[in-house]
Amino acid sequence: MNEIDGRSRMAADSARTVDKTAGARPAASPGPAKLELIGIGKEFRTKRAHTQALSGIDLTISDGEFVSIIGRSGCGKTTLLRMLAGLLSPSAGQILIEGRSLWDGTKADTSVVSQLGVVFQEANLFPWYSVAENIALPLRLRGDGKADRLARAAELAELVGLGGFESSYPRELSGGMRQRVAIARALSTRPKLLLMDEPFGALDALTRERMNLELQRIALATEATVVFITHDITEAVFLGDRVVHLTPRPGRIRQVKTVEFQRPRSIDVQTEAAFGAMERDLRHALDDDEKG
Amino acid sequence: MNNDRVRKILPWVSTPLILLVFFLAWEAFVRAFEVSPLVLPPPLAVLESLTEVVVDPETWEHAGVTAAETIGGFLIALAFGVAVGVLLGKVAWIELSLRPLIVASQVVPKVALIPLFVIWFGFGMTSKVIMSAMLAFFPIMLNVQLGVRSVDKGQREVMRSLNATRWQTFNHLELKSTMPYVFAGMEVGIVLAIIGAIVGEYLGGNEGLGYLVVRTLNELDAPALFATIMLLSVLGLVLYFAVNSLKRFVIPWHESVYGQHDVNG
After folding, report:
1. Distance separating alpha carbons of residues B260 and B265, to the nearest angstrom
2. Taking CA atoms, what residue in A is nearest to B163?
3. Which residue ranges traverse the bilayer (chain B) (predicted)?
């Protein structure tokens, strides 16, 4: 764990220096730091108990990187994502997005929040709006013109494989398609950081596998920096440049593993020995969490 | 495909058929048991009376009064029901402090208050409008309150994560997601509003279809009584369908609307 911490802190330092000099550069690892978590902790206080949900989370994510965060339920991974999304304030530490602090005390800086795109486990679409209107909702809220919105919605519908469905309504879509709309909505503002909280958790296994491939394609096409929360080991390893393993009570980073396969990956990497070995290690580590 | 078509046409065929069978059975019953026309007039006599009643301009004046009372009461109930419902749904301490009173006022048989309203507001339309508003108010208010509370948490989070302002959250989320509840309340409310107006007319005054019912009863004119009741039913149907059509127009995306489409084909 110390070794890992050292590594990520070094990465953070070098990233900070790079950040000052580098302008817009193509997604490549290691790019400038997109997201830095410094000593993040979260404590929930009720009358009866203090729960330390997360403690001492340090992590640096560079531009264009895809980071999976995995852990058992109750390890605080959703709490972590909610803090990243500006929905829940951390009790300790700092979250920097491109060097700017997301939280000012318990208030999220709206100009930083507007740089984020969030996809939740549920698609949370608005049934009274068409697919195009749902996708373009973030643009509408920030005041973009109608023509721009429509053009962007059509472009994104195409990107997520829903070309031709722009005027459909959510009720006419399957679960996988709804989640595609949610992804398109999150991408509509061209966010600097895409946050995903078990986005495919509610889908069946086959749909999920296809959505993983789609997400990989979309992430590469948009050069998105992604934080992807999941409890599925295969999904985490398949999608991530790195896999962060959170261990519960209190939630801490137990290990960070780099996945050596180049993206894009075909579904066949899952049968390769190195992939299997990584999955196995993670599974054992997650089992240890259970015992401990 | 074929099945769909059958589903679409079936109610249009079955309803007249059932009505026809009903009237035939009625006629047969009256003839077979030689029922006194004072108790149950034969359908043909009712039809005859209905045509007389329908061509009489006085009937339409009465119908107009009842419709005006109903719609007036309903609109008042809608305005207050939405306002109070939103307030109670949004502000917990007001809801908590008023809950016992609200429950109590619901339990009170409001129809029993009509004589009081007549004393306070006279025999004119006002007392009926108030009665009709009182009856329609509660279902609307309760539904709105429920609707305001039922805004989906996940959708709220989406709005929060998009930095939505209060007004934007209201306009894009809360208002739209409460609309189905408002309409559910309105559909119950409009029916109760008619009941309020009619019962009000039963008990006082000299205008409206409810008054006509009482008058034909006193005249022991059973066919005219039946005809008036039919007119009242038609008035109810028209008002209900007006609300229902408005709902289809305003919230076409809602399950209660497109679900109906599915059932009807």
Report:
1. 8
2. A110
3. 70-89, 101-123, 129-151, 181-204, 224-243
Name the residue in chain A with its Cα closest to that of B251: A128
Q: Cβ contact (<8 Å) for A137 and B162?
A: yes
Q: Which residues pair with A257 in a beta bridge?
A: A243
Q: Which residue of A has its CA nearest to B162?
A: A138
Q: Where are the domains of chain A?
A: 2-115+191-291, 127-181
What distance in Å separates the CA atoms of residue B218 and residue B257, rounded to the nearest whole number? Answer: 44
- The pair phi, psi for residue A45, each rounded to 5°, is -115, 125
Nearest to A32 by CA among A45, A17, A47, A42: A17
Instruction: Report how many Cβ contacts below 8 Å link chain A to chain B.
Output: 47
Q: Residues of B at the A interface (Cβ-Cβ below 8 Å)?
A: 152, 154-155, 157-158, 160-164, 168, 172-173, 176-177, 251, 253-255, 258
Q: Is residue B37 part of a domain?
A: no
Contact indicator for A194, A117 with CB cutoff of 8 Å: yes
Q: What domain count does chain B have?
A: 1
pTM of the model: 0.80
Residue B93: CB atoms within 10 Å: 7
Residue B17 forms part of a structural domain: no
**What count of other Cβ atoms lies within 10 Å of the Cβ of residue B221?**
16
Judge: A127–B172 Cβ closer than 8 Å, yes or no.
no
User: Predicted ipTM?
Assistant: 0.80
CATH class of A2-115+191-291: alpha beta
pLDDT by residue, tens only, chain A of 292 residues: 444 444 444 444 443 333 333 333 344 445 578 888 888 888 888 878 788 888 888 999 988 899 999 988 878 888 889 999 989 988 888 888 888 888 888 888 888 888 889 999 899 999 999 999 999 999 999 998 999 999 999 989 988 888 889 899 999 998 889 999 999 999 898 888 899 999 988 888 888 888 889 889 888 888 889 999 998 999 999 999 999 988 887 888 888 888 888 888 888 888 888 888 888 988 888 888 776 5
Q: Please report whether residue B9 resides in a domain.
A: no
- Which chain A positions have a beta carbon within 8 Å of B152's beta carbon? 124
Name which of A86, A110, A171 is nearest B258 (Cβ-Cβ).
A171
CATH of the domain at B241: 1.10.3720.10
Sequence-distant (6+) residues with CB within 8 A of A166 are: A130, A131, A132, A153, A154, A157
Residues in CB range of B123: below 8 A, 6 or more apart:
B204, B205, B206
